[in-house]
Amino acid sequence: MDFFAQQARVRGSSRMLVLLFALAVIAMVFAVDVVVLTTFGHHRHGFGRPAPSNSTLMTWTSLIVLAVIAFSALYRIQSLSAGGKAVAESVGGVPVPPDTDDPQLRLLRNVIEEVAIASGTPVPDIYVMQDEPGINAFAAGYSTSDAAICVTQGSLDHLTRDELQGVIAHEFSHVLNGDMRLNIRLMGLLFGIMMLSVIGRQLTWSGASVSTSDDNDGEAGRRVFGFSIGLTILAIGSIGYFFGRLIQAAVARERESLADACAVQFTRQTSGIAGALKKIAVVEGGSQLQVANRHEVAHMMFGDVDEFNDWYATHPPLMKRIRTLEPWFRETELAKVEASMRAVPPDSNTDAAVDSATDTSDKSPKSLPPLEWPGHGDPAAVATQVATAPIIAATIAATATATNATVTATATATAEPKPGTFEHAGALQQSIPASLTDAAKQPESALALTLALAMSAHEDLRQRQCRLIANAFGDDVQFTVGKLQADEATLPASLRMPLVSLSFPALKSLPPGRLQTLLDTLDAVVRVDPQVDLDDYCLARLLRMHLLEALQPKRAPIDGQKKLPTCRDSVLLVCAVVAVYGSDDDAAARRAWLLAMDQAFPGATFTWQTLPFDWQESLDRALADLDGLMPAAKEIVIQSLLSAIQADGVVTPTESELLRVICASLHCPVPPQAEVSAA
User: Fold this and answer.
1) In what order do the strands lie in the sheet with 125-129?
2) Would the keyword Transmembrane helix turn up in this protein's UniProt record (predicted)?
């Protein structure tokens, strides 16, 4: 899927959301005004003019209704200011420990970590809704830095590894496409326009509790009056309910179809997500939730949380989603899926059994077999899958966006994973030494691991860095850093960023004061050497950006509005840094830089300039400037950087790491072309 086109689509959804919300508010204010005027208004007098007091009454009534809606929405949005984890906990999600021994939870963590590494994002917080037997999941947060993935217990009980991976890939598409921030806004706005319904319900219940034996006629009269008012407000609140459900459906349906297509492109096969949808169709309860506030999060779930009519449904019909993935599938085959579920437990090797159970007599192509880990499986089958999956995904995307503009081939390449992306990510994950992965699981050891990654290989510099660490955290931490550095010394450069990604959840759980001390100390350790090493710069910038956004999720930047020419100097500098550090000599660097400039500003003439000594501070300012670009301009920047990186036909670990940091700074996914070239 084209990430930048998706961002533009989210922006369009935001405008539609605001419009529908405004219509709902106007309708509710008008309805309340009519009721108040009818009940408390004065009769007309003199030449048919309304009594002057009616204008005052209507003004105050409108202001009060607007205030109730506005403050309710702001209250709900503020209650979710902690980001994804706040949403997950609001529906009963329980965090999954990094060191869990539960096989189901361990599998869930492995799949999510694998997808995070493949997509170039920090590992999100992971939650499970333990009391939910249905198959469902959602992603929530303001940005990738505070994202949370939450799945139901039913997903763990019923889905195979490939199916779970398909569901998680679907949710990661929402993470990368900017849907999560819109989802949280929608939760707040829905709470606001439905608040009148809540108030009316409370007044109605209070009035209905009048005792027939109550001798206090005055109290009974007040309760009856409250019942009448509550019933009226409840009726008016139904307008908010109507608009709220329509808003959810209007915003969510198309995004869910596109997320299905994105999951196919992520996983390079259709059997995973299609298998999950089939199981939703046959398990008792399907994807429905039991939690009381399930309707509040209906628009962000993988499947419908309740039985909705066609107007209120937040997802396309289940069979339509399945047939979009597998056009040859028929509803009668669901009985075979159900039988196979009873016969075979849901482990990582049951996919073949399910596929054979759903086989038909015709020779239509079935869902593609899952890719195996490197070195396993039938090469011919893998080649067939790799060749066919993009075609199926493109068909899904075309079906979901038939009315949208056609996406260019270049843009599609920016976000579409290469064959083996997940397998490569899994191999990287398994290549990290156990001592380092264990250290990444706990806050204090993750802190020491982060500092160890920034330690210099030169003895004199390392001694000064050790003193800085000891002064900031004490001798115990400094000793742990030294021990981890010995393990990290032989770590390939390509594993540094995956290790940082795995450490991110533990680092986020540090107290804010200690986290700030870590960031300050990390900067000091990196700058012990006046000529800051590029790898250390990337480490420090990536952690600072992600961790500060995680501390204050609501402050995560939104899409900018600037056009590319306004950031010309920043583009020149960023491309120059990538060209210099990705080339062996000055001539190669100039050639790579000119290719990037021709991609960004076709036909323009530029003069090569060497990097300043303090390029790090200049690069920080340039990246902050480029983050304010509109999505289409960011796309051009990323393509320009890819031109520079691929100028010599080789992607080095340094180039890959630098591009990962630049993409994170621009709040874009890492293009798969940035994967390190094979030696």
Assistant:
1) 94-95, 125-129, 148-152, 137-140
2) yes
Burial class (CB in 10 A: 0-12, 13-18, 19+), 332: exposed
Say what the pLDDT of residue 394 is.
44
Q: Which helix (H) or strand (E) holds 417?
A: none
CA distance 410 to 379: 28
Establish if 264 belongs to a structural domain: yes
In sequence order, what are the residues at sequence separation of 6 or more whose Cβ sits closer than 8 angstroms to the Cβ of residue 389?
264, 265, 267, 268, 269, 270, 368
**Residue 173: CB atoms within 10 Å:** 27
Reduced to 3 states, what is the DSSP secondary structure of residue 277? helix
* pLDDT tens digit sequence for 50-107: 556 678 888 888 888 888 888 888 888 888 888 889 999 999 999 999 888 899 999 9
pLDDT digits (tens, 9 = 90+) for 277-325: 999 999 988 899 999 888 888 888 998 888 776 677 788 888 888 988 8
Measured distance CA(520)–CA(131) in Å, rounded:
42
Q: Which residues of 489-526 are buried (b: 16+ CB within 10 A; e: fewer)?
A: eebeebbbbbbbbbbbbbbbebeeeebeebbebbbbbb
In the residue annotation, 635 being an active-site residue is answered as no
Distances (CA, A) of 437 to 44, 283, 578: 78, 36, 30
Q: Minimal CA–CA distance to 597: which of 569, 561, 626, 563?
A: 569
Please report which helix (H) or strand (E) contains residue 392, including its range: helix 379-400
Residue 304: enclosing H or E segment and its boundaries? Answer: none
Q: How far is residue 277 from each of residues 134, 148, 297, measured CA to CA in Å? A: 12, 22, 19
Q: What is the pLDDT of residue 380?
A: 36
Q: Which residues contact 30 (CB under 8 A, 6 or more apart)?
A: none
Residues 6 or more apart whose Cβ sits within 8 Å of residue 638: 414, 663, 666, 668, 671
Q: Could you give the dihedral angle defined by the CA atoms of residues 147, 150, 156 and 157, in that order, rounded to the nearest 10 degrees?
A: -170
Domain with 288 in it: 1-426
Neighbours of 4 (CB within 10 A): 23
Q: Has residue 469 been placed in a domain?
A: yes
Same domain, residue pair 345 and 462: no
Asked if 248 contacts 254 with a C-beta cutoff of 8 angstroms, the reply is no
Asked whether the beta carbons of 129 and 107 are under 8 A apart, the reply is no
Domain identity same for 531 and 590: no
Last residue of some domain: 373, 402, 426? 426
pLDDT at residue 384 in the model: 37
- 614 is written with which tokens? 């303090």
Radius of gyration for the chain, computed over Cα atoms and rounded to the nearest angstrom: 28
Tell me the angle at which helices 534-551 and 443-453 cross, rounded to the nearest 10 degrees: 150
pLDDT at position 15 is 67
Whether residues 365 and 396 fall in one domain: yes
Looking at the structure, do residues 358 and 230 belong to the same domain, yes or no?
A: yes
**DSSP helix/strand/coil, 518:** helix
| Catalytic-role residue among 113, 114, 163, 171 | 171
